[in-house]
Fold these 2 entries.
Entry 1:
Amino acid sequence: MANPAPKLDPRGRKVKILATVGPASRSPEMLARLFKAGVDAFRVNMSHGEHADHAQTIETIRALEKQFRRPIAILADLQGPKLRVGKFKDGQAVIRHSGHFTLDRNPEPGDETRVELPHPELFGLLEKGQRLLINDGKIRLRVISADADTIHCSAEVGGVISDRKGVNVPDAEVPIPALTDKDRKDLAFAVAKGVDWIGLSFVQRPEDLAEARRLMGGQASLCAKIEKPNAVSRLAEIIEASDGIMVARGDLGVELEPQEVPPLQKRIVNETRLKGKPVIVATQMLESMIESPAPTRAEVSDVANAVYDGADCVMLSAETAAGDWPEEAVTIMHKIARQVERDEAYIERVRLLDTPPDSTTADALAHACMTVADTVPVSAITVFTGSGSTARRVARERPSVPMLVLTPSMRTARRLGLLWGAHAVATKDIGSFEEMIAKGKRMALRHGFAEAGSKLIALAGVPFGTPGSTNLLHVVTISGDELDKHDD
């Protein structure tokens, strides 16, 4: 008999960890180490690297799935329409504090008085008093006047400016599409490679999601990245139009005052949770671990607070993509999440947000799962689903016990890699009530969620295989011998 494939025990936490792949983590050996350290999903950043590199990364992750027999979510993060200044005569210049500086449409190299802004859509849009932030806000300009060819500014904060530095326009909705030509090519590549999630950058309005959704053709889930303050005014519509949300605090922190970001983060997390969709908190979570093997106390608190707020997923960016300590960063994040979730007050904290069920049978039963788990000593909730919608309904209630999701769809199992509390297993479909109960028991034993004498909640829909038919909740007891003569 062949040796069984290696199996990882359940993570022992409900929040998920999303890690960015880059030069520091692209090798098969490091990706395996990160996965074993606690990564549930990998982010492929389309802003950097070639398609050939990304294709190899995706292939390596799919090989890990087979090795460890666990679905792994892959999120391809599109670059989006990044605004940038042109080039300078000497590669850089110095803008004087309180001096004047002009952005124009002249393609000649710039100097300390002016530079090209190769984005015609901004001219005539900006008004007196509005801000332009350059190089992640290190340089802050205030518009004095603007016309069809020039934007005259005063420098509230000057400094060194160099070629192609990014520009943020926090006070205006910029009329540019959310997808650039590069994004369309990257999106087509990612979909062809079978990624599970597409991250759409710099979303400003719900309409921005429509083209991406059309180009995806239902082949992946769509995550809207909230990194523009004007997206917040239409947050409910953006959540409705997406499959998940990312709180991208990097650009949000550039365009907003620093003190405005934490309450906004909590608002975005809450509003997304209310809709039963996964929400990711991202950017600078363990930033010092790019260079240090240990985080600061403030970073630990930041990660912990995101977990206490009930975020579905916490993300590592440069820490795993380009840092010196990628495995250690994942290990620390895993330990923080487990520690928080062991806190007796944790479940009470994440349920401070009231998530009343919709007036449907499926929602009522998902809510009942939480109530039963609080009342009866059950080990897990086993959810049978084709599309994943039943799992999302249960996760929205933030039950106190783990959720074992059984689905005949590997695509669904992978996409659930960003969902709070979901341990997804792709398995053969079921055809009867008896088969469902028997399989649920076996899977709970096999994946470490139960032992002899344990109770399980089973949630499913009859007739089986019919989307949206969740109408059955059953409590069963494990005898302990269910695995005999079964190999599924």
Entry 2:
Amino acid sequence: MRLVLVVLAGLTFSASTVADCIQSPERTQACPHQIYRLGQLENMAKPAMLCICVADFKEFLTVPSDEDEAHKQKLKRLKLEYALGQKIEPILQVLKD
């Protein structure tokens, strides 16, 4: 009986963690690629386990091929930062490490 409670408690923790995953607010379907990393964002007092939807930030880890692509990436980045209410550079640093 105790083992069942431990397993259920673990499932509850996992479900709440997924709900707190950092992802694009425009996402309507489940994230296809999530990672869990230890990190600290601007609004955090100390490092903690972060869930990040890599698919929503992957394009910002690449260098744009031309000026037009760089402009599109910058606009998308600003829109995402506004929607999240924070800069995405610390999130990208967590993904790079």
